[in-house]
Amino acid sequence: MSVQGVTLCRMSATDGVFARELAELAGRELLALRLAEGFGDPAKLRAEGDRRAHELIMAELAASRPGDAILSEEGEGEQGRTGTSRRSADRVWIVDPLDGTREFGEEGNTDWAVHIALWERGKGLTAGAVALPAKGYTLGTDVPPDAPGQVSAGPRIAVSRSRPPAWTEKLAEATGGSLVPMGSAGAKVAAVVTGTVDAYVHAGGQHEWDSAAPVAVAVTAGLHASRIDGAALEYNAEDPKLPDLLVCRPELAEVFLRELAGLL
Predict the structure, then answer these.
(1) CATH number of the domain at 156-263, please?
(2) Which residues does the annotated region (Disordered) include (predicted)?
(3) Fold match between 2-140 and 156-263?
(4) Per-residue pLDDT tens for 59-82?
């Protein structure tokens, strides 16, 4: 299968390897688009990035995993948020073709990602990859990332640079930490995995495709991932809204959940 002159067909690859290769393929397409189009019309660039990455991913899933269902941020009908067939499927790919569309359209901004995750009935998230094309690396469940080292000072907390929850300043004060504004959920979780920050806290609106692949990678790396009230993260739900998220080093989970309970 070919889209925009690139080809990938991995019928026999493991799901983890396939997720990584697909995320990286879409990432290369997005980097090429940025280079070719430039940043003179950011709205056009963002729209074209969403479209091209989505079409590439859909084509490759159809070729390499034809029997699986799909939930995509950019999807329509059965591949989008209102589809119903995925609810009875045993395997569902949950994808965000371009996480951080706003950042993608900003010259010099590297906080955008490609998310590819697989949910399986009775198992939950079983494979995932987060490509950070402008940063030059990909994190995936096929090669579990090393757990970051221990916190040496107050925790660094990644938050949305455009819409952080109103209580984040109080959370930082209560935990002795500091806030690090960033774009893209994938970039924020990747920062926790790599040790750039120690936690990522979000509330106020997300969907399954925003967190599925990052959470799959984070859990594989031994990190804590949950709702901000401590509840488990559930995927392939009837309504794909999944509005809040906590990803952090495991030794910080208890204190963060305790402080969050007092703030919510």
Answers:
(1) 3.40.190.80
(2) 67-88
(3) no
(4) 999 999 999 999 999 999 889 888
Looking up tokens 């967190």 gives 211
- How many Å apart are CA 118 and CA 216, to the nearest integer? 9
**Phi, psi (degrees; rounded to nearest 5) at 143:** -125, 90
Q: How many residues does the chain have?
A: 264
Q: For 93-129, how does the pLDDT look when each residue is reduced to its tens digit (9 = 90+)? A: 999 999 999 999 999 999 999 999 999 999 999 999 9
Confirm whether residue 96 is marked as ligand binding: yes
Is 198 a known ligand-binding residue?
Answer: no
Helix (H/G/I), strand (E/B), else coil: 207 = strand
The answer to whether the annotation marks 30 as part of a ligand binding site is no
Q: Where are the domains of the chain?
A: 2-140, 156-263
Q: What integer pLDDT is reported at residue 244 of this predicted model?
A: 95
Q: Domain 2-140 in CATH: superfamily?
A: Fructose-1,6-Bisphosphatase, subunit A, domain 1 (3.30.540.10)
Question: Residue 208 in contact with residue 94, Cβ under 8 Å?
Answer: yes
**Residues in CB range of 207: below 8 A, 6 or more apart:** 73, 81, 240, 241, 242
CA distance 159 to 85: 34
Please state, in angstroms and rounded to a whole number, the distance separating the CA atoms of residues 262 and 171: 10
Measured on CA atoms in the order 173, 179, 185, 187, is the torsion positive or negative?
negative
Q: Is 98 annotated as a binding residue?
A: yes
Residue 201 in 3-state DSSP? strand
| CA atoms of 93 and 78, how far apart (whole Å) | 12
Q: Is 229 annotated as a binding residue?
A: no
Q: List Cβ neighbours of 264 (8 Å cut-off, separation of 6 or more).
A: 167, 228, 229
